[in-house]
Write a structure and sequence with these properties.
It contains 8 helices and 11 strands. The radius of gyration is 39 Å and the shape is elongated. It folds into 3 domains: 102 residues, SHC Adaptor Protein, CATH 3.30.505; 150 residues, SHC Adaptor Protein (2-Layer Sandwich); 65 residues. The strands form 2 sheets. Strands 1-2-3-4-5-6 form a 6-stranded mixed beta sheet, covered by helices on one side. It has a 5-stranded mixed beta sheet with strand order 7-8-9-10-11, with helices on one face.
């Protein structure tokens, strides 16, 4: 029977949250199992008002160690915790109140007159209830490919299936470059979920990681998740609202760069270089659009104000051209040439200079 202070599958941050519920008094603690099924535990204990983390593993002689040191000849987790609750040389703070895993506390026999402490229940895996894209491991790779094709087979179509043998591991099936690809989702060293051994944020649940990959601007991830391939339970329910998040108006999604196509769970993470998005008026912020509209309206007003003046100048240019042609004809024909007075009269009317001068 697991002790009430032991939690399964908690990330570092989640462990600190459990301790904070008890209070940041020195000595308050909890213990969590290590990620990836590794032997041993990690104790989170408050020291100098801050949560600290300490590795607990058995040594070659069978004694339980914490930070590679043994205390009191303890050989089990429970024995070591009991020893550390008392002042002991080499350990800086005696253990005091612990966070309570309600699942373990409810399984323990109740003592007469005892009051059950409240605690959080952290499930060790996603059961699939309410997760429309989660499928059982039994569908296999070929079954996943068939479901992706049935769901449309377009880039971004996806599903998640449970791993066939490993607990708390999953396989993301995703259509990328018009072909199905498969990517392993599991817990990393710090307890957060990774995909293809690469982090795309700090997420203690698979569903949170998938929700993050539905965004259009996840750095390093080449294909936004858009259309889920639904499981049978979800198909029986009324269709939900579109799951794809809206792209911010000020941002255009970065297109996937050319990369080796992922085909198996062992595929290395795809490195996608940053690509500058082409400008698009429809994606400009509203305040920028308003400034542009005002500028265009202002330019139109100025053009209207100068329109009459431009028309007058155009007429004068036409008259100058006619005057030049008349001079040219007079030279060819040997007739009297037009005078500047006639040009000025044509251009400015009676306000022109008087006194004709033959060219």
């Amino acid at each position: 029977m697991a002790p009430e202070y032991l939690f399964e599958d908690l990330s570092r941050d989640a462990a600190e949250d459990e301790v904070k519920k008890v209070g940041l008094q020195d000595g308050n603690f909890m213990v969590r199992s290590r990620a990836g099924g590794k032997p041993g535990y990690v104790m989170c204990v408050v020291y100098k008002s801050n949560p600290t983390h300490h590795l607990m593993v058995p040594n070659d002689d069978g004694f339980m160690t914490i930070n590679k040191k043994t205390y009191g000849g303890a050989k089990t987790l429970e024995q070591l915790v009991a020893v550390l609750k008392k002042p002991i040389k080499g350990w800086p703070v005696p253990l005091k109140a612990n966070a309570v895993n309600a699942a373990n506390a409810s399984a323990a026999p109740k003592k007469k007159g005892s009051v059950k402490k409240k605690g959080s229940v952290r499930k060790s895996s996603v059961k699939g209830k309410g997760v429309s894209y989660l499928h059982e491991a039994s569908i296999g790779k070929e079954g996943a490919n068939a479901l992706l094709k049935k769901a449309g087979g377009k880039n971004g179509t996806f599903l998640v299936r449970k791993h066939a043998t490993a607990k708390n591991q999953y396989v993301l099936g995703l259509v990328y470059k018009e072909k199905p690809s498969h990517h392993l989702i599991k817990r990393g060293e710090d307890g957060g979920y990774v995909i293809n051994n690469k982090k795309y944020g700090d997420f203690d649940k698979m569903t949170k990681l998938v929700a993050h990959l539905k965004k259009a601007d996840v750095k390093g991830w080449p294909q936004q998740l858009t259309t889920p391939a639904l499981n049978e339970a979800a198909k029986a329910e009324p269709p939900p609202a579109a799951e794809a998040p809206a792209v911010p108006r000020s941002q255009k999604p970065t297109p996937p760069a050319a990369a080796e196509e992922p085909t198996t769970m062992e595929t290395k993470p795809i490195a996608v270089p940053e690509v500058a998005a082409a400008p698009d008026d429809a994606n400009l912020p509203r305040d920028v659009q308003r400034v542009l509209v005002r500028a265009v309206v202002g330019m139109g007003a100025k053009i209207n104000a100068y329109e009459a003046q431009l028309a007058s100048m155009n007429t004068q240019l036409e008259q100058l051209e006619a005057f030049a042609l008349a001079v040219q004809q007079a030279v060819v024909q040997g007739s009297p040439r037009p005078t500047f007075e006639s040009l000025q009269q044509s251009l400015y009317g009676n306000g022109g200079a008087s006194g004709g001068t033959v060219l």
